[in-house]
Write a structure and sequence with these properties.
- The complex is a heterodimer of chains A (about 300) and B (about 425).
- Chain A is mostly helical.
- Chain A folds into two domains: about 40 residues; about 230 residues, MetI-like fold (Orthogonal Bundle).
- Chain A contains 13 helices and two strands; from the N terminus they run αββαααααααααααα.
- The longest helix of chain A has about 40 residues.
- Chain B has about 425 residues and is α/β, with parallel strands linked by helices.
- Chain B has two domains: about 170 residues, Periplasmic binding protein-like II (D-Maltodextrin-Binding Protein, domain 2); about 160 residues, D-Maltodextrin-Binding Protein, domain 2 (3-Layer(aba) Sandwich), CATH 3.40.190.
- Helices cover about 45% and strands about 15% of the residues of chain B.
- Chain B contains 18 helices and twelve strands.
- In chain B, helix 2 crosses helix 13 and helix 17 runs antiparallel to helix 18.
- The longest helix of chain B has 23 residues.
- Classes of the chains: A mainly alpha (about 300), B alpha/beta (about 425).
- Chains A and B meet through helix 1 and helix 12 of A and helix 1, helix 3 and helix 17 of B.
Chain lengths: ~300, ~425
């Protein structure tokens, strides 16, 4: 029994310190117990591998053979490697194409579906289906659509009379093809976020604006949009993080594309680590990606004061 | 409090256990676990060898699994104490998986190994010379080129079970329909080009290729005699002969006789194979290991050596075999199993279902009888006589991947062949 009971009379206006303190201790213990599994999981499956990857990135760590300490040599090699530079550029290109397209499509569709039209729940489900279906299955189906003899080629031949270009084999179109497939795959999630946010814009504000003479476009731009900026911030940040990590689409559609034109950072890490068995280099590339994503996310958070309106 | 304290104690024990397990996990051992020949009681015909062995191989389905279990059954019959489990992985994933297993724990005792990829994994396999001497395995019973291809650092690390030169498969029905004479061993490049042109009509093409190493390297060897490595064993794809051969290959494939190549690597191989098997392409290059699946096509098929190039009709040979991983606690038992699995009985069994052109020349006739493909014997005998072991640098997995993907750009015309070879040489010579 370790509940300490203070038998002295407490000062007026102050609740008994001892029972409150022990209740606090109990609470802390309960809290730790409930948080324990998550914290252990975080430590074992996230923190430990992250630190391990940092350690590995300082070594020449082949899967078989001797491990030699190299300090920052792996990073120097990466920066001097033209393939790695191209891979970083490809990833940035993918992000630069994907994010605006994803946001425009998801926000546009959310606005389009926002009035209480008939069949609204049906549309919401329809737009969310690509998100739910496994990306591997989607990528394989889209590959069949893109390749010569596939759906797009047949349509082009029957409607336009000439065969479609080989989208995935041509440097000019391979990245765009991957972006289009990714937008189709991913817009549903942001659509749902924006749709919910738009629903939560208070009707009174919109009515007041209408009374003041604002038309539809002005109501959207001056009332709705500022009020959903927290959701836009959330969606942009998350989508940025996940789009930098794109792997399945280039892996399944082009395996890095004609030459290295659609090779992305995570695909590079996968190839270096698991196919060519250079773990140290792969870990270093992974940390470069980590730093890039952290930097961009930090910029996002710093910038939010400017354009995000929390009410 | 006490029950809570007890739960906390349990929780922290679990936490410590997890952390210890996590810390203990990823450290890979690189020391060999047991040296071969360490058990003094084993005698060459030991039927008292006894162990539970795992055998990992690339397996594409139930038929494959059944075929390999027949082979391991031979080993189990020879040595009743052995119990061999066959583990299969589909081909595209096999090398990542085996690399992963060989670098951690859990590697199988008997490892399926291919001559082309031996260089990357050779250090993890047990050298077999002592065991071969002990078990009186005669190297001369095997085809020399494939046995040599299974050496790493001068040491024999695997015993081959099959091998084959890369030759041409063709569609006899299409040849007849186009009134083109059937090719015979010794046919020339001009014969090939004429035939391919005559066979390219409508939606049909004379030839199908893929941007994968076995395709373009076979042609470079045939067209110019050039190989990937120079005399010192270094990557030399910008050597004049190699550039010449690769240019000729790309020009040949883009001259209208071949279908468009759209994806590199193994996916491209699957498309090429599909085109030939569907009858859309009249010819393609592959090895005798595909003979049986190719025989299942609805048309009459034939095999012929590569057309004679400027240096003759040259062919690469590749093959597969079995090695013993250094992690195996019972290497001698594993070796006894491998001896049975590459012995005459097992190879005759595989050959008689046409599954593997045997690495033991003595058993080859069983394959010919089983395959029952007209012209196969002349073709393969000719090709093997004119064959060259396929040697690759140690980082070939990486180099082939780069070459496949960049080569695609030569085949689509985005880059010139010289540019492709410059890229491959620059990154390949720089090392992994």
């Amino acid at each position: 029994m370790s509940i300490a009971i203070d038998t002295t009379a407490p000062a007026p206006g102050v609740s008994p310190a001892a029972p409150r303190g022990s209740r606090l201790r109990d609470d802390r213990r309960h809290a730790l117990l409930f948080l324990g599994p998550s914290l252990i999981g975080l430590a074992v499956f996230t923190l430990f591998p992250t630190v391990m990857a940092l350690v590995m990135s300082l070594f020449d760590w082949p899967v078989f053979g001797e491990r030699t300490f190299r300090g920052l040599d792996n990073y120097a090699r990466l920066l001097g490697n033209p393939v790695f530079r191209q891979v970083v550029l490809n990833t940035c290109l993918f992000v630069a194409l994907y994010i605006p397209l994803n946001l425009v499509v998801s926000l546009g569709l959310a606005v389009w579906v926002s009035p209480r039209i008939k069949g609204r729940p049906f549309f919401r489900i329809l737009f969310f289906i690509p998100v739910m279906t496994p990306v591997v299955a989607n990528a394989v189906v889209w590959r069949f659509m893109y390749q010569p003899g596939g759906l797009l080629d047949s349509l082009s031949q029957s409607v336009l009379g000439s065969p479609a270009p080989s989208f995935l084999a041509s440097s000019a179109t391979a990245m765009l093809a991957i972006v289009v497939m990714s937008v189709w795959q991913g817009f549903g999630y942001n659509f749902l976020v924006f749709s919910t946010a738009i629903d939560q814009v208070p009707q009174e504000q919109l009515e007041a604006a209408a009374i003041d003479g604002a038309n539809g476009r002005q109501r959207f731009w001056y009332v709705t949009l500022p009020m959903i900026t927290p959701s836009i911030f959330f969606a942009t940040t998350l989508t940025l993080i996940t789009s930098f990590q794109v792997f399945a689409q280039p892996f399944l559609l082009t395996k890095g594309g004609p030459g290295n034109n659609t090779a992305t950072l995570v695909l590079f890490v996968y190839n270096e680590g698991w196919r060519f068995l250079h773990m140290g280099l792969a870990a270093a590339a992974g940390w470069v990606l980590f730093v890039i994503i952290m930097g961009i996310t930090a910029v996002q958070f710093l910038g939010q004061k400017r354009w995000v309106h929390y009410d | 409090m006490r029950p809570l304290a007890r739960w906390k104690g349990v929780a922290s024990l679990v936490a410590v256990g997890l952390l210890v397990a996590a810390c203990g996990g990823p450290t890979a051992t690189t020391q060999p676990s047991a040296s071969p020949g360490s058990s003094p009681q084993a005698t060459p015909e030991a039927t008292d060898v006894s162990a539970d062995l795992t055998f990992q191989f690339w397996i594409g389905g139930e038929a494959d699994q059944a075929a390999w279990e027949t082979v391991t059954a031979v080993a189990e019959a020879d040595h009743p104490g052995l119990n061999i489990t066959v583990q299969g992985t589909p081909w595209p994933d096999y090398w990542s998986k085996i690399g992963n297993q060989l670098s951690n724990t859990g590697a199988p005792c008997i490892v399926g190994m291919q001559s082309l990829r031996l260089a990357a994994y050779g250090d993890q396999l047990v050298p077999l010379e002592e065991l071969m001497a002990k078990y009186e395995v005669n190297a001369a019973d095997f085809d020399t080129s494939i046995l040599d291809s299974m050496k790493h650092g001068g040491k024999q690390v695997a015993l081959p079970y099959d091998f084959g030169p890369l030759i041409l498969y063709y569609n006899r029905d299409l040849f007849k329909a186009a009134n083109v004479a059937e090719p015979k061993p010794g046919w020339t490049l001009a014969d090939f080009t004429a035939a391919a042109t005559a066979l390219t009509t409508g939606s049909q093409v004379g030839f199908s290729t893929a941007s994968i190493d076995q395709e373009y390297l076979s042609w470079v060897l045939d067209l110019s005699g050039a190989e990937v490595l120079d005399g010192d064993g270094k990557l030399a794809v910008t050597a004049p002969a190699f550039v010449d051969g690769y240019k000729k290959y790309v020009e040949l494939m883009r001259s209208g006789i071949a279908s468009d190549v759209t994806v590199a690597g193994y996916d491209g191989y699957v498309i090429m194979l599909g085109e030939w098997q569907a009858g859309t392409a009249a010819m393609y290059v592959d090895g005798p290991w595909m003979a049986i699946s190719n025989k299942a096509v609805p048309f009459d098929m034939g095999m012929v050596p590569m057309p004679v190039g400027p240096g003759g009709s040259k062919h690469y040979t590749a093959g597969s075999g079995f090695g013993i991983s250094k992690q195996c606690p019972t290497p001698e038992a594993a070796f006894a199993a491998i001896v049975s699995m590459t012995g005459e009985e097992a190879l005759t069994g595989l050959a008689s279902v046409g599954r593997a052109y045997p690495a033991r020349p003595a058993v080859a006739d069983a394959w010919y009888t089983a395959a029952d493909i007209e012209g196969a014997k002349e073709t393969l005998d000719f090709a093997i006589e004119n064959s060259v072991p396929w040697l690759t640098p140690p980082n070939w997995v990486e180099m082939a991947d780069l070459f496949d993907r960049t080569g695609l750009q030569a085949l689509t015309g985005e880059l010139t062949p010289e540019q492709v070879l410059d890229i491959v040489q620059e990154q390949g010579a720089a090392g992994g």
